[in-house]
């Protein structure tokens, strides 16, 4: 007897429930791509470089190029010196940025803060790049004095800095201009700055005054996640780099007669279509409205937590509200990620005041005093 129908419906039910109570991860769930459903019947594949037509015709390359152009402009890239692609997510975008950095400066030292996303260490390991972890300030932002001390000892080699534009736990934003000032003060002339802007790229680009993180501020590449602030049924991301740096690696493989400029060969052809569609529907104004809505909810959450004697804080402009680790039942129900003595609620555009109220009730009603500790967290 084939019971796959039942298995599928059970999974669907679970997915629906878990999507409802979703406050701990930076993933938007308020997207509507119904109009694009017919494309699920076709083997979309944006094989290779999006800017070079391959012979594989079932693709969304045209949309992908528009998505990249949108972000190149949003991140103030030099008009004729940008390139990029829609990746499988922020992690791949970080891998790509660090890869270009290594090809540019093979003997460089990499610097990143201790609040950096866990995937970066693995990426550096894959790329076999030496690195130094920099201390962070209490809010999760890079400690620039420690950066300076560390760089001073390695002034003889180029510097590659991975800056966080919204850290995973506290959404702290490293200041790219400050990082550049540190390098200038040490007369380090060869440097590369990659920005991990997985969640914070869109948010910070639409913030006034604008934090220093984009190409105009001195970034050499920027990676964002597509399924986070915009939202997508398939994890995806966007990486924007300087075209000159992309051309360097394209030349390196030209002897095989290919423009193998992306990490993977076959690439998702559906996700560029989702991103293109969302950007078309929202435009800059729509994105701004989403940012404003998220901030308003974060402000509300902060006030309500404090009113109920739950310690809480947030970085300026962040949509992440930091709270202490919560009892297991609460953390599990609301999918609250926890690291060390920090947990958080991320006020994505779909998060409502009612959900914040419910969460607070759950916290107040919880009799369990055993919080989800860091040990537990490491299992995931
Ligand atoms: C989510 C996140 C990543 C990883 O992005 P994926 O899209 O999940 O691969 C990297 N860095 C930061 C700061 C993140 O928040």
TrEMBL record:
Keywords: Decarboxylase, Lyase, Pyridoxal phosphate. One of its GO terms (biological process) is carboxylic acid metabolic process. The keyword Lyase applies. Gene3D superfamilies: Type I PLP-dependent aspartate aminotransferase-like (Major domain). This is PLP-dependent enzyme, glutamate decarboxylase. One of its GO terms (molecular function) is carboxy-lyase activity. PANTHER family: PTHR46101, SERINE DECARBOXYLASE. It comes from the Bacteria. The modification N6-(pyridoxal phosphate)lysine is found at residue 228. Pfam families: Pyridoxal_deC (PF00282). InterPro entries: Group_II_Decarboxylase, PyrdxlP-dep_de-COase, PyrdxlP-dep_Trfase, PyrdxlP-dep_Trfase_major, Pyridoxal-P_BS. Belongs to the group II decarboxylase family. Its cofactor is pyridoxal 5'-phosphate.
């Amino acid at each position: 007897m084939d019971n796959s129908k039942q298995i599928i419906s059970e999974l669907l039910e679970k997915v629906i429930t878990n999507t409802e109570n979703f406050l701990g991860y930076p993933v938007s769930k308020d997207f509507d791509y119904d109009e694009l459903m017919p494309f699920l019947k076709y083997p979309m594949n944006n094989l290779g470089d999006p800017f070079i037509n391959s012979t594989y015709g079932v693709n969304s390359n045209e949309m992908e190029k528009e998505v990249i152009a949108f972000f190149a402009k949003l991140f103030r890239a030099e008009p004729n010196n940008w390139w990029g692609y829609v990746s499988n997510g922020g992690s791949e975008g970080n891998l790509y940025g660090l890869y270009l950095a290594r090809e540019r400066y093979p003997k460089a030292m990499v610097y990143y803060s201790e609040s950096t996303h866990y995937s970066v260490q693995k990426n550096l390991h894959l790329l076999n790049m030496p690195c130094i972890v920099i201390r962070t300030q209490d809010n999760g932002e890079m400690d620039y004095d420690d950066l300076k001390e560390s760089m001073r000892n390695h002034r003889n080699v180029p510097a590659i800095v991975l800056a966080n534009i919204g850290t995973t736990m506290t959404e702290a934003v490293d200041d790219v201009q400050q990082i550049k000032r540190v390098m200038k003060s040490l007369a380090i002339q060869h440097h590369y700055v990659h920005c991990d802007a997985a969640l914070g790229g869109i948010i910070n680009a639409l913030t006034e005054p604008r934090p220093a993180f984009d190409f105009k501020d001195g970034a050499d590449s920027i990676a964002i996640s597509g399924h986070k602030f915009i939202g997508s049924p398939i994890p995806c991301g966007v990486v924007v780099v300087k075209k000159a740096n992309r051309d360097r690696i394209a030349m390196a493989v030209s002897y095989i007669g290919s423009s193998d400029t992306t990490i993977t060969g076959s690439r998702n052809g559906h996700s560029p279509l989702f991103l293109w569609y969302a950007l078309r529907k929202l435009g800059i104004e729509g994105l701004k409205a989403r940012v404003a809505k998220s901030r308003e909810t974060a402000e509300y959450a902060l006030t309500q937590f404090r009113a109920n004697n739950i310690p809480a804080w947030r970085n300026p402009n962040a949509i992440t509200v930091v709270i202490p680790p919560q009892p297991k039942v609460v953390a599990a129900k609301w999918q609250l990620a926890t690291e060390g003595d920090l947990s958080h609620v991320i006020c994505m555009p779909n998060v409502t005041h009612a959900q914040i109220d419910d969460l607070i009730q759950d916290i107040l009603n919880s009799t369990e005093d055993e919080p989800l500790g860091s040990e537990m967290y490491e299992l995931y």
